[in-house]
Specification:
heterodimer, A: mainly alpha, globular, B: 2 domains, 8 helices
């Protein structure tokens, strides 16, 4: 899927640029994009190390498992592939909680930790498991109680009611999350995607 | 009232991280975890994870930057605006809505401009804020999250993420029409 999207973006950009006369800009943009990507990644090193260190303490202290156990009733339905007490559950909850509070700096490292835990249960090295897809979809829809950035911009623009959008954002992101869960679950049942499910494919292999 | 609310939000934002950074090691210490050694052990991975993301993020950001620079978005918006007019979606919002899954900083730029030109309390200002506050940059999350564990075949993650974004934007439009009316 990403093959099509990626090629589509590049091809459309090139063809459009011929007509809009922006070929040089497109070339520059590709290089700047690559630079930005490296800067973002390198910028993550410090904060990643910090949160992974803290998470390791939380793990050894049994906090992650404790969290996993608390949310077990919800997660065992959402993530049937994951053992209910698995640390992946605790890490996912921490990531979602950071999103709720609008702490995007902490949310990314915690989310990556959760991804790593989910990967430890994935039988494939390069293919996403159903749990990983669902977790990602929930993250792109991210419920937020405190959209701090946008409130800041509204205050700066002299809004009379900068918080009026908290309720609307919460509503919209809750809808998006529900749709994300349903879509990820339903699409996972489609033949095209079921065929590539790394955790089913392995079981089917001996039949050959 | 508004002032008080702002203070509460600021306090939560300011306190959440320092509290976590003390709370977790405290529990660890009380449970006789060798906090310093364990922290260093965990932190070691930080470098590798960040480096692993690079190729994925370069690929995604290169394509998105090219797309943005080509002006394809403007053409796309002019094609689609007759349809979105029917559901009461202001044409001014469209670039922000389509940019949302592609680029966080790009969307923030567009939205800041919308808020400043139309006013933060206008319908457009409120709708733009709601869209920004309720969705994430899907392709960035995709590249970073899957990149960190070297997943290349993302299966149904792209359609699921985009459908969720679409639902979020539609829900934002619906609730803003209800609450802020035109």
């Amino acid at each position: 899927m990403l093959n099509y999207v990626w090629f589509g973006l590049v091809a459309i950009a090139f063809v459009t640029a011929i007509f809009t006369g922006k070929i040089p800009e497109v070339g520059t943009a590709a290089v700047t994009g690559a630079e930005t990507a490296v800067n973002i990644s390198l910028g993550l090193i410090g904060i990643m190390a910090l949160w992974l260190g803290i998470m390791k303490i939380a793990e050894e202290a049994g906090l992650i498992k404790l969290l996993a156990r608390i949310i077990k009733p919800v997660t065992k339905r959402l993530f049937p592939e994951i053992p209910p007490d698995h640390p992946a559950m605790g890490a996912m909850l921490l990531n979602l909680a950071a999103n709720w509070l609008g702490l995007s700096n902490a949310a990314t490292p915690l989310g990556l930790k959760a991804m790593e835990e989910l990967q430890s249960l994935n039988k494939s090295d390069d293919t996403a498991s159903n749990s990983q897809v669902l977790f990602l979809a929930m993250n792109t829809a991210s419920i937020t109680f405190i959209p701090a950035t946008i409130i800041g911009i509204r205050v700066a623009a002299g809004s009379k009611d900068p918080f009026s959008i908290i309720a609307t954002s919460l509503f919209a992101s809750t809808c998006a999350t529900i749709v994300a869960i349903i879509t990820a679950k339903l699409l996972g049942r489609l033949k095209v995607f079921k065929k590539t499910d790394p955790n089913i494919a392995v079981i089917e292999e001996p039949e050959k | 009232m508004s002032e008080f609310f702002l203070e509460v939000l600021k306090t939560i934002s300011n306190w959440a991280i320092p509290v976590l950074l003390v709370l977790i090691p405290t529990v660890g210490f009380l449970k006789k975890v060798k906090v310093y050694e364990v922290f260093v052990e965990g932190a070691k991975e930080g470098f590798n994870v960040a480096i692993r993301i690079i190729p994925f993020l370069v690929a995604i950001l290169m394509a998105i930057s090219m797309f943005r620079a080509s002006g394809a978005m403007d053409i796309f918006v002019s094609f689609i605006s007759p349809i979105t007019d029917l559901i009461g979606m202001p044409a001014e919002i469209l670039p922000a809505a389509f940019m949302r899954p592609l680029s966080g900083s790009g969307t923030l730029g567009i939205i800041t401009e919308l808020i400043n030109t139309h006013g933060p309390d206008s319908f457009i200002g409120n709708l733009a804020s709601t869209i920004y506050g309720s969705t994430e940059t899907t392709f960035y999350v995709l590249a970073v999250y899957f990149g960190s564990v070297a997943i290349k075949k993302t299966r149904h993650a792209v359609p699921a993420g985009l459908i969720a974004d679409f639902a979020g934007i539609m829900a934002a439009l619906f609730i803003c029409q209800l609450m802020f009316g035109q």
